[in-house]
Design brief:
heterotrimer; A alpha/beta; B mainly beta; C alpha/beta; B: mainly beta; OB fold (Dihydrolipoamide Acetyltransferase, E2P); 5-stranded antiparallel beta sheet; 3-stranded antiparallel beta sheet; 2 helices; 8 strands; about 45% strand; C: alpha/beta; Peroxisomal Thiolase, Chain A, domain 1; 3-stranded mixed beta sheet; 13 helices; 14 strands; globular
């Protein structure tokens, strides 16, 4: 397998894009990425989307998006791995380039969530339909059960979870593409409407429209287009039981532990070498648990880490400098690619007020369901 | 029309039928074709004891449209005496009385309706003992 | 000897007080309490219906009977609130309890008498030697139109009885039914609430049928009211069964244990069956029990039971009716009650 680089990025504003269809959103992001890379063609494309069928009634997304992007007859495939669809699309593109089958491949992600579908029901299809969702469980509900178990086992507090939301909103305020660009206070989070106890509205990522795309290519090709080479240093994916209740532990996400282990090994790094990370904070508790399971600290310290500023932009391990899913928005299928874009901007020094000092190696962790899928990519500035 | 898939799950939803692996005795609920513990594929059907304890819970305040009018309701993960864990609503409960570790038993309740004219869908819910 | 080998009851935990209903309709609760002798009633949870109530009552009956569910040859559920207009209630029950599939099931309807119909047919099949065990259930989530007098009484609950010939806890000695076409109360197809003919439901309907059936049963059994330790009648309100008892010659003390209506309401098809369950919960060997149901339309089924010495072995094997009635109550206000009973118009 040969080395692979990311040479171009493009994304839309995340938010409620009332005037734009799923096709408009994807084409905007993909066009920006192709232009940003400066390439004159792409050999193939992969698009992550969680549930275009339920959200907008459109399947066969690969073909329709290639068509509207003006890229027929190149191969184009939609990749689905629930909320990790974007990360999985990136991996598919990575392997196509690494194998030598193609030189330039687009990895994108898109979701259009505001066209009137029952969003709670659509998102819940990422859990076990017959043995979780049948009982009325929602995604906030599943993560709330993780939160209650985590609080019970490790003493994680409500304030600590709120601190994660406060931090991510603070970061997102400096991201021009973020859905929410206003900071929130600890009190605002703590007093927001209960969604699934103990999680409140400001613990939850929003319903969003948005698209994101990146261009991957072989190292030889990359050197023709740019001097700042952003290399894909490690990539890994892991699965876990679909139902939260089937797991031995309700407070450890095994897919994260496993994927992290494999990605670190491939990259030849340890958690200490990671300068910053974008993690899947679909709910505040998810960031706390993932921080632990990525090996940044012992189990149980995910809550205190945010409260003590260890995950702030100027902290030891900055998390979600983009604002995360919480503040930037979570158009499900686009999220994994948008994380790669934040890594790219940080590693190329283009993150503006969000810029992490000495950002050489970044990690993106994208997960589906209550952690039944996890994709981790590690990028490095060469 | 959900009749076929509803009908398929009746042994589990109505009477807690599970699959006990003949090789390693691990109980799968719902039954599986491959044992997640040992990978073997011969099972005997067993009925679970409906008593257990609560491992975690939440109060769902915002639900899908299917559960409109039913919120807020409590949901938890219950570990039954057989060691099997499952997700279930907790019925007839004062939310302040729900605690991790509390004893519960499963009862027979209506879980959801298929619209106004479709099937009534039944199954298990937990109540505090 | 053929009779009851196992019985079980089930009541929802939710309640509404007469005061809360009266307030909404500008009525004086004291008049209701004094006139109808009703104080509060059971209300089914949002997730409860005749089927779930029947399943829980039947599970309790199975616990007391201690038999293999596979030996039950018939299951009949009597109710006027079967969740489906077309589709039997008991198919769901047998699959929940592990009965059958070699079993005969049916849904019965005869206003408030459907439960004793189910019991009567179950008993008859065992007596005829057709099967070893048969189960009869009376259960309802009763409907009463908002603002109607029935709203104070229409409640939810049920009782299940397994009939058999071995280890009988209450032998059925005599039965008698009395039926005529008397249109005192009905619900047309597709209508949500029943209609009734006001005072016509009393003398020509309830009293005529119940007392005639009772008198004939006394004659048939060659017994007199004083021979019985307990009596139980259909309880549309607190007052009617007391008046019927008096007309038949029973004393207040004989009726007391089964007279659960003031705090439970009228569980329609479950009314006299739950009253019988309350009696069996406390009865002693040798006690005679006199029971007459009433269903509008109209008819009555009467039974004479003699409690056996096996009763003491089973009473504590499942929850007792009085405990369910008196403990762990959850009170609703009228708004919650209206929501729980589907009385609020919702969008599709």
């Amino acid at each position: 397998m040969r080395d692979v680089a990311v040479i171009g990025i493009g994304m839309t504003q995340f938010g409620e894009l009332w005037g734009k269809s799923i096709k408009d959103i994807f084409v905007e992001a993909a066009t920006k990425a192709i232009k940003n890379a400066g390439v004159d063609h792409i050999d193939s494309m992969y698009v992550g989307s969680m549930s275009s069928g339920l959200f907008v009634g459109q399947e066969h997304l690969g073909a329709i998006l290639a068509d509207y992007l003006g890229q027929t007859p190149i191969p184009s495939t939609r990749v689905e791995s629930a909320c990790a669809s974007g990360g999985a699309a990136f991996r598919a593109a990575y392997f196509e380039v690494a194998s030598g089958a193609s030189d330039i491949v687009l990895a994108g992600g898109v979701e259009k969530m505001t066209d009137g579908a029952d969003v709670t029901e659509a998102l819940a299809t990422a859990a076990d339909q017959e043995y979780e969702v049948y009982q009325g469980v929602t995604f906030p509900g599943l993560y709330a059960m993780i939160a209650n178990a985590h609080m019970n086992q490790y003493g994680t507090t409500r304030e600590q979870l709120a601190a994660i939301s406060v931090k991510n909103h603070r970061n997102g305020a400096n991201n021009p593409n973020a859905q929410f660009r206003s900071p929130v206070t600890l009190e605002q989070v703590m007093n927001s409407t209960l969604v699934a106890d103990p999680l409140r509205l400001l613990d939850c990522s929003p319903v969003s429209d948005g698209g994101a795309a990146v261009i991957l290519c072989s190292m030889d090709v990359a050197k023709k287009f740019t001097d700042t080479i952003i290399k894909v240093k490690g990539t890994a994916q892991a699965s876990d039981t679909i139902a939260l209740h089937s797991r031995k532990s309700l407070t450890t996400l095994n897919s994260v532990v496993t994927a992290a282990h494999k990605a670190y090994k491939m990259a030849g790094v340890t958690p200490k070498d990671i300068n910053f990370a974008e993690v899947h904070d679909c709910f505040t508790i998810a960031e706390a648990v993932v921080y632990e399971d990525l090996g940044f600290c012992e189990k149980g310290c995910g809550g205190p880490a945010a409260e003590e500023g260890r995950t702030a932009i100027d902290g030891k391990t900055p998390l979600n400098t983009s604002g995360g899913l919480k503040s930037k928005g979570h158009p499900v299928g686009a999220t994994g690619i948008a994380q790669i874009i934040e890594l790219y901007e940080q590693l190329t020094g283009q993150a503006g007020k969000r810029q992490v000092k000495n950002a050489h190696i970044g990690l993106a962790q994208n997960m589906g369901g209550s952690g039944a899928s996890c994709v981790i990519n590690i990028l490095e500035a060469k | 029309m959900i009749s076929p898939k509803y009908h398929r799950e009746i042994p589990q939803r109505y009477r807690l039928e599970a699959g006990k692996c003949k090789a390693c005795s691990n109980i799968s609920f719902p039954p599986r074709l491959v044992c997640p513990e040992c990978g073997k594929n011969e099972f005997e059907t067993v009925r679970l004891n409906g008593e257990g304890k609560l491992l975690t819970y939440t109060i769902i305040r915002v639900a899908s449209d299917k559960f409109f009018g039913k919120t807020p309701f409590a949901v938890g993960i219950v570990e039954l005496k057989d060691g099997v864990k499952l997700t279930t609503q907790i019925a007839d409960v004062d939310f302040d009385k729900i605690k991790i570790g509390i004893k519960v038993k499963l009862v027979f309740r209506k879980i959801q309706d298929e619209g106004k004219s479709g099937l009534h869908c039944y199954g298990y819910k937990a109540v505090l003992v | 000897m053929v009779g009851i080998v196992g019985y079980g009851s089930y009541l929802p935990r939710y309640r509404i007080k007469v005061e809360n209903i009266a307030k909404e309709w500008g009525s004086d609760p004291e008049v209701i309490k004094r006139g109808l002798q009703l104080f509060e009633k059971t209300v089914p949870g949002l997730d409860e219906d005749t089927i779930t109530i029947s399943v829980e009552a039947a599970r309790n009956a199975l616990k007391r009977a201690g038999i293999n569910p596979q030996d039950i040859g018939a299951v009949y559920i009597g109710s006027e609130s079967h969740p489906y207009a077309v589709k039997p209630s008991a198919t769901i029950l047998i699959d929940a309890l592990g009965i059958g599939p070699h079993v005969h099931v049916a849904s019965y309807e005869f206003a408030c008498k459907a439960g004793t119909e189910a019991m009567y047919v179950a008993y008859s099949l065992v007596k005829a030697g057709e099967m070893k065990y048969a189960m009869g259930i009376g259960a309802d989530t009763s409907q009463g139109a908002p603002g109607d007098a029935l709203e104070y009484s229409a409640s939810a609950g049920g009782a299940a009885f397994i009939m058999g010939s071995e280890n009988v806890v209450a032998e059925i000695l005599f039965t008698n039914s009395y039926t005529s076409d008397t249109p005192d109360f009905w619900r047309r197809e597709h209508e949500f609430y029943p209609r009734h003919a006001a005072r016509f439901t009393g003398e020509p309907a309830y009293f005529k049928h119940l007392v005639s059936a009772g008198k004939a049963l006394l004659e048939k059994s060659k017994m007199k009211p004083s021979d019985f330790k307990y009596c139980v009648f259909h309880m549309p309100n607190g007052k009617f069964p007391q008046m019927a008892a008096k007309q038949l010659g029973f004393a207040k003390e004989q009726m007391e244990v089964g007279w659960i209506v003031p705090w439970m309401g009228n569980t329609y098809s479950g009314s006299s069956p739950t009253g019988l369950a309350a009696i069996l919960d406390v009865a002693s060997p040798g006690d005679l029990i006199f029971m007459v149901s009433f269903g509008s339309g109209a008819g009555s089924d009467g039974f004479v039971y003699r409690v056996t010495d096996k009763i003491k072995d089973v009473q504590n094997k499942a929850p007792k009716l009085r405990d369910q009635l008196d403990k762990d109550k959850i009170y609703l206000d009228y708004g919650q009650y209206a929501k729980y009973r589907g009385k609020i118009i919702l969008n599709e």
